[in-house]
């Protein structure tokens, strides 16, 4: 990616993390940007919560949780979250 594309990508990741902080009760966001095992740059943006068990909250999310057994995204159940994220991101773009 060219420099300007990398800058824009980074700003988009920050915007998504800021939106997560605004629409959830997360107290921090973990970011993990990769591009080595898949041929495309991608970022995992993981909200972290004070309600997480002590033995998991301080650990890297990838090691603390069993992602294979995690609840899958459900458009109906998660629709409200998606709409709140969309609204926050659209508000930020309009500013």
What does the secondary structure layout of this molecule look like, with pairings?
Elements: H1 3-23, E1 28-34, E2 42-48, H2 54-57, H3 61-64, H4 79-94
Antiparallel strand pairs: 1-2
Helix pairs in contact: 1-4
Brief rundown of the structure:
By secondary structure, the protein is α+β, with helices and mostly antiparallel strands. It has helices spanning 3-23, 54-57, 61-64, 79-94; strands at residues 28-34, 42-48. Helices cover 47% and strands 15% of the residues.
Structure description:
- There is one protein chain.
- The protein has helices at residues 3-23, 54-57, 61-64, 79-94, and strands spanning 28-34, 42-48.
- By secondary structure, it is of the alpha+beta class.
- It has one domain.
- It starts with a helix and ends with a helix.
- The mean pLDDT is 91.
- It is built from four helices and two strands, in the order αββααα.
- α1 packs across α4 (79-94).
- β1 and β2 form a beta hairpin.
- Strands 1-2 form a two-stranded antiparallel ribbon.
Brief descriptors of the model:
2 strands, 95 residues, two-stranded antiparallel ribbon, alpha+beta, single chain, 4 helices, 15% strand
Number of helices: 4
Distance between the termini: 27 Å
Helix amount, in percent? 40-55%
Computed structural class: alpha+beta
According to DSSP, the number of beta strands is 2
Fraction of residues in β-strands: 5-15%
How would you describe the oligomerization state of the chains in this entry? Answer: single chain
Report the uncertain regions. none
Report mean pLDDT, rounded to a whole number.
Answer: 91
* H and E order: HEEHHH
Q: Strand order within the widest sheet?
A: 1-2
Count of separate structural domains: 1
User: Which outline best applies?
Assistant: globular
> How would you sum up the major sheet?
2 strands, antiparallel
Give me the Rg, rounded. 15 Å
